[in-house]
Structure formats: structure tokens, C-alpha cells
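Render H+/gluconate symporter-like permease in 3D.
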Amino acid sequence: MPYGTLIAMPTAIVAGPLLARFTTRGVRLTPPALHDHRLAIVTPSRALSLLIVLLPVLLIAAGELGQMVPEWRGAPALVAASNPVVALLVTNLLALPVLFGRRLRDAKTQYAVWHETMEAAGTILLVIGAGGALKQVLVTAGLSDLLARLALMHAISPLLLG
């Protein structure tokens, strides 16, 4: 940790404010044009909202508890209910009609739902995907094996390897 801090602090200073002084000369920022994609919807009751939030937990718990009953062990419905992916899928399929009702078929509503969900998750998914692709390129190219052999053969600083 001390080595990382020792390297990270000057790097952040140089790569941040100092570099910005040289690279942003003459750049004028204008406020972006914002589009409001939010919908005015009637919110469901608190009890229904709480049920939707707790539904995956209840499905997984019911599936696991149902496996303890000898007659029900291995029942396909219980096995499916205890699967977290299935529990979340069922919850989403129930939550959308509860929240939007018949307006879910409206194109404007679908656009707003997709826009709001992808705006938050899109960047995260992009970074994770790019990191995975970079890892695979390094492994396929043999760079990871090369670095491992170099680290074993020579006394190379972990900071330099990082």
C-alpha cells in the first residue's frame, strides 16, 4: 500500500491537473443538451413495491426450504425457484406490468425504461467487457506467460510489473 500510494499520488497530479493545463488550451465547454426521458407514472402501493423487492429472496428461500421436505426434493418448480437467475427473471417480468400497467406497450414508455436502465449500466458493462477483451488479448498473445517468466527469472520490481 505505501508503494502504491507513493507512485499513485505523483502520477495523479501529473496526469490530472498538470496535463489538463497543456491539453485543454483553447477548449470551451458548452452545457450539453439534456433530454428528459422520465415518465410521470402512478407509483404502486408500498406493500406491492415491498413484495416486488422481496420476491427474489422469497423465491430462492422457498426453493431451498422446499428441498428440505423429502416428498418435494428435486421437484422441477422448486429447483427453478431456487435458481437466482430465474428468480430475478420472474421478478422483473412481474415488476414491469405492476409498475407500468398497460402503458408498458407504449413506445415512449419502453424507450424511457431502456434509456434509464442502460444509462446507468451501459458504462459499467462497457468497461467490464473491454477489460475482459484486453485480458484475453494478453493471454492469447502470450504476454501473460512472458511476464510470469520474466518475474521468475529476474528480480523485477512489482511496481514495474504493475
